Automatic annotation (TrEMBL):
Enzyme class, UniProt record, top EC level: oxidoreductase
Gene Ontology MF annotations: 2 iron, 2 sulfur cluster binding; FAD binding; iron ion binding; xanthine dehydrogenase activity
Protein name: Xanthine dehydrogenase, small subunit
Assigned EC number: 1.17.1.4
Keyword Protein transport part of the UniProt annotation: no
Lineage: superkingdom: Bacteria
InterPro entries, sorted: 2Fe-2S-bd, 2Fe-2S-bd_dom_sf, 2Fe-2S_ferredoxin-like_sf, 2Fe-2S_ferredoxin-type, 2Fe2S_fd_BS, Ald_Oxase/xanthine_DH-like, Beta-grasp_dom_sf, CO_DH_flav_C
Lineage: Bacteria, Pseudomonadati, Pseudomonadota, Gammaproteobacteria, Pseudomonadales
Underlying gene: xdhA
Start and end residues of each FAD-binding PCMH-type domain: 192-365
Pfam families, per database record: CO_deh_flav_C, FAD_binding_5, Fer2, Fer2_2
Source organism (scientific name): Pseudomonas fluorescens
Residue intervals of the 2Fe-2S ferredoxin-type domain: 1-90
Keyword Metal-binding among UniProt keywords: yes
Record's keyword terms, sorted: FAD, Flavoprotein, Iron, Metal-binding, Oxidoreductase
Database matches in CDD domains: fer2
């Protein structure tokens, strides 16, 4: 059984199809059709809902953290122990919520289909910001698409609803909601079971290892932003899933003198602060990683584990020399991330083995790290090419070089010939041009709807040139650039 709050209503579910999304649960099972299906792939934001989770600050203060999510990509099992808020829950005692009122007064609703999703993103923004600037509003709404256009009034609604905000019914009930969430906090393995399909929800790494050993055919579910597409886009059935999002040990970020250890189930939005503090380019790229709804849900371990050749984080992590800790039963092994990827969607992971954590070296002033993403759209788009460069110079000579790319091969991959051309040579135009030519030995990219093979290779070469120019003249740097 799993338990969660549907606004303030306690829901206990056991015999649901684990392949059921929160979107369809709201619309078909509890009669809340305000949440819309636009794309069923997490691109349009029409299905946005907000999930509240109990959090405890370093000073011991308990509060509820509200996050926007795409309900079309969220399986119901991930709600275990949480609070689900949909657009129907905002109106209170016959009065519109302030974010709804702002959308009306600023004329932010046009045909109205996308409006519930915008309202829920604004609600999450209001809960997380006292006076958001334009950038914060843009970030919160970048995952919501309005087909009628007219974003200016929606941004005005964001300003009106968030500046000088007043307490609402959720603030008034916070103490009671905290108590209710504590009362339903999971204490044992949860489960949804429809007879022929099941999803198990462990709470510890040990439980996860035991379950995965017992069900090696199970699909691991973290954020589900990739896995859910098999259900929503390809109409496949997932007979057995194991949801890892309630394993607290895999959601921690620990800082050591020489490294960060990031739990594989840590949401990308939670990774931002730690990675941005060490590597601002990594932080900038995470800001462009899909939408805020996806970053609130997708995990760093999932972005690695799905072995996509166009995943944004692996090239950066490979260039930084990151490692992963793989767990199987009581056995753990540490593997360089670059050795995890073998071929297209083929990895070094063994049966019943899972990524427990990612180890990222701390930043060093001697190493010059930069990252760049090339995509057709600045926000909420997939890379055509993603590049990461990390070199160390001694007296103007390249002493160490790690160069990695995504989108250039069947796997995220280091550019060995390029690195060889750089190593031991003065870091100058001639060396960079030799290294650019060597990229043609490293990669034979494919053409697809994102970019041609010629465009990809030329872009990779130009990004290396860009890296060199920016290091010579840092005042003109424009990092993590998009090319249209």
């Amino acid at each position: 059984m799993i338990q969660f709050l549907l606004n303030q209503e306690l829901r206990s579910e056991h015999a649901l199809d684990p392949n059921l999304t929160v979107l369809n649960y709201l619309r078909d099972h509890v009669g809340k059709p305000g949440t819309k299906e636009g794309c069923a792939s997490g691109d349009c934001g029409a299905c946005t809902v907000v999930v509240g989770e109990l959090q405890t600050d370093d000073d011991g203060r308990e509060h509820i953290r509200y996050r926007s999510l795409n309900s079309c990509l969220t399986f119901v099992s991930s709600l275990h122990g949480k609070q689900l808020i949909s657009v129907e829950d905002l109106k209170h005692k016959g009065q519109l919520h302030s974010v709804q009122k702002a959308m009306v007064e600023c004329h932010g609703s046009q045909c109205g289909f996308c409006t519930p999703g915008f309202v829920m993103s604004l609600f999450a923004l209001q809960k997380n910001s006292d006076a958001p600037d334009h950038a914060k509003a843009h970030e919160a709404l970048a995952g919501n698409l309005c087909r009628c256009t007219g974003y200016r009034p929606i941004l005005e609604a964001a300003e009106q609803s968030c500046c000088g905000k007043q307490p609402d019914q959720f603030d008034a009930r916070e103490a009671d909601t905290i108590a209710r969430l504590k009362a339903i906090a999971p204490t044992d393995i949860g489960e949804l079971n429809s007879g022929d399909k099941r999803c198990l929800v462990p709470l510890t790494v040990a439980d996860l290892a035991d379950l995965y050993d017992a069900y090696p055919q199970a699909r691991l579910l973290a954020g589900g932003t990739d896995l859910a597409l098999e259900v929503t886009q390809f109409h496949r059935t997932l007979p057995v899933m194991i949801y890892v999002g309630n394993v607290a040990e895999m959601k921690r970020i620990e800082r050591f003198d020489d490294r960060l250890e990031i739990g594989a189930a840590t949401a990308l939005s939670d990774c931002y602060e730690a990675l941005n503090a060490e590597y601002p380019d990594f932080g900038e790229l995470l800001q462009r990683f899909a939408s805020l709804q996806i970053r609130n849900q997708g995990t760093l371990g999932g972005n690695i584990g799905n072995a996509s050749p166009i995943g944004d984080s692996p090239p950066l992590l490979i260039a930084l020399g990151a490692q992963i800790v793989l767990c199987k039963g009581e056995t753990r092994r540490t593997l360089a991330l670059e050795d995890y990827f073998i071929d297209y969607r083929v990895t070094a992971r063994q049966e019943s083995e899972f990524i427990e954590k990612i180890i990222v070296p701390r930043a060093s002033v001697e190493k010059l790290f930069r990252a760049y993403k090339v995509s057709k759209r600045l926000d909420d788009d997939i890379s055509a090419v993603c590049a990461a460069f990390n070199i160390r110079l001694e007296n103007g000579v390249v002493a160490e070089a790690r160069v990695a790319f995504g989108g250039m091969a069947a796997i995220p991959k280091r550019a060995a010939a390029c690195e060889t051309a750089l190593l031991g040579s003065p870091f100058n135009n001639a060396t960079v041009e030799r290294a650019c030519a060597a990229l043609g030995e490293d990669f034979t990219p494919l053409s697809d709807f994102r970019a041609s093979k010629e465009y990809r290779l030329l872009s990779a070469q130009n990004l290396l040139r860009k890296y060199f120019i920016e290091l010579q003249t840092p005042h003109i740097e424009t990092r993590v650039t998009a090319y249209v």
